[in-house]
Design a protein that fits this description.
Layout: H1 7-15, E1 25-33, H2 40-47, E2 54-55, H3 57-69, E3 73-82, E4 95-103, E5 107-116, E6 119-131, E7 136-145, E8 148-156, E9 165-181, E10 193-212, E11 215-233, H4 241-244, E12 259-271, E13 274-276, E14 279-292, E15 303-315, E16 319-331, E17 339-341, E18 354-356, E19 358-373, E20 376-390, H5 396-399, E21 415-427, E22 435-442, E23 447-454
Parallel strand pairs: 1-4
Antiparallel strand pairs: 1-2, 3-4, 5-6, 5-23, 6-7, 7-8, 8-9, 9-10, 10-11, 11-12, 12-14, 13-14, 14-15, 15-16, 16-19, 17-18, 19-20, 20-21, 21-22, 22-23
């Protein structure tokens, strides 16, 4: 990566033997230009440079990566020149850093449409990626669908008053048609739908954290009310006995009890990822622990931990490989907190076709550029999805959960895989991708599924 600067000053500096800042010199001044919305102080904060820092060409490269990865700018250039001495011949030395940052269009109001297995619908969303020109985020989105209908609102402040502290209040109101499938009984299996119910989940929370270099430490307090309705057989050929395990039963129980779900969460995240106009590089490692807080009125007492890792690398300038992996384990999880597999996390299978309190998953994607037209970029991708999902402990007495028969399956029954192809459409002037289309093939069920999302696809 090379840093551009005016040709004449460059020649003069080379002639003086200081071209390219051969020795470490201090930053004396920072000049921000070409930005029309983002505040100068915000640009400097994202670039992570301040007067007094030691300067080198490598610092300029790092600044540019940070600015581009923020998603706020469609063009970024960093260059520098020497600070001249004052009229009296003193006061010179050091460099003046110039940041040319051309803003992207930061907000969008867009309809959405998507077609996924068991979930079809659309919505309308408003997203602001640079509120007040200070890199704050605001998302308001609502949708109506055959599966998940919900409203989400979130405000993200990545730097409270210019400090390393950040916070996020959010609300998530959902009514969802949930389909439960039979527990897998073989590796090559396609479990059928048994029970269908409507889950009403009214949730709100607040997150507070601090970022130290590339490490983020966060705490979150969350509260939700959970309720069920419209409990029925998922298909006409399903018998009540297949759900209850009792030949004499005629009534269908709810998947779990209703009540208040209040929890506390602690997470630690290391994130060195950068995004160069849709090409990701770097690593992300995150550890998260959450527990139900009966002391604050929660009707559910549970705990779980997740460990996730993502590694992204660039090849041939515009080719991108991303590996994502995760491991999650929980105890006494209520229905609304169980780990699920299927749908967009396992393309080629039905949404949430597998459930459990233990899940290990991996996903590999390789994407390539197809063509670009005036900032509109089309990319193709191939993917492999794998996951193992099962129940280690299905204790109805502890959770009030009504498990389907055979929930504690073992062996390879819960190990499933899929492969497929997809495409993404990006507009360089806007932060979010505009279209996602994936065709996934479930290897063990020998069937294809199509996943289409148009609009706010992230």
């Amino acid at each position: 990566m090379r840093c551009a600067r005016p040709l004449l000053p460059t020649l003069v500096l080379v002639a003086l033997g200081v071209g390219g800042v051969a020795r470490a010199e201090p930053v004396r001044e920072i000049v921000v230009e070409k930005n029309t919305k983002t505040r100068d102080a915000t640009v400097i904060l994202i670039a992570d440079v301040e007067p007094g820092d030691e300067w080198s060409p490598a610092v300029a490269d790092e600044m540019k990566v940070r600015l581009v990865s923020s998603g706020l700018f469609k063009d970024v250039n960093v260059w520098w020149d020497q600070v001249p001495p004052g009229p009296d011949g003193t006061g010179g030395g050091g460099v003046r850093v110039h940041i040319d940052a051309v803003d992207k269009h930061s907000w969008v109001i867009a309809p959405t449409f998507y077609n996924q297995p068991t979930n079809k619908g659309g919505g309308l969303g408003f997203g602001e990626n640079n509120l007040f020109g200070e890199n704050k985020k605001l998302l308001l989105y609502g949708q109506v669908a055959t599966g998940d209908s919900f409203f989400i609102g979130a405000y993200v402040d990545p730097s409270i008053a210019g400090t390393r502290w950040h916070w996020q209040p959010d609300v998530y109101l959902k009514t969802s048609r949930v389909i439960e499938y039979a527990s897998p009984t073989a590796w090559r299996d396609d479990p059928k739908a048994l029970r269908q119910s409507r889950l009403n989940y009214l949730n709100g929370g607040v997150r507070l954290g601090v970022t130290l270099w590339k490490l983020s430490i966060d705490g979150r307090l969350r509260g939700a009310h959970v309720g069920y309705g419209d409990i029925e057989l998922a298909d006409d050929d399903v018998a009540v006995e297949e759900i209850t395990g009792d030949p004499a039963s005629t009534a269908l129980p709810a998947p779990g009890p209703s009540g208040w779900d209040v929890s506390g969460e602690l997470s630690v995240t290391y994130d060195s990822r950068a995004n160069w106009y849709g090409i990701s590089t770097g690593d992300r490692l995150a550890l998260r622990y959450e527990t139900g807080l009966t002391s604050l009125g929660s009707d559910f007492e549970y705990r779980y931990a997740t460990l996730s890792y993502e590694r992204a690398r660039k090849f041939y300038e515009r080719h991108n490989v991303i590996l994502r992996s995760s491991f999650a384990i929980g105890r006494d999880l209520p229905f609304q907190q169980e780990f699920t597999t299927g749908g967009t996390t396992m393309r080629g299978w039905k949404n949430a076709q597998f459930r459990g309190d233990l899940k290990a998953a991996a996903n590999l994607e390789y994407s390539v550029p197809l063509f670009t037209i005036k900032g509109l970029a089309f990319r193709g991708l191939g993917f492999v999805d794998s996951a193992y999902t099962t129940f280690l402990r299905a204790d109805e007495a502890a959770t009030g959960r009504d498990y389907l028969p055979g929930a504690k399956a073992r062996g390879l029954d819960g190990f499933k895989n899929s492969i497929g192809l997809g495409t993404r459409l990006y507009l360089r002037q806007i932060v979010l991708p505009l279209l996602g289309l994936d065709l996934g093939y479930g290897l063990e069920r020998n069937a294809f599924e199509v996943y289409l999302a148009i609009g706010l696809t992230d």
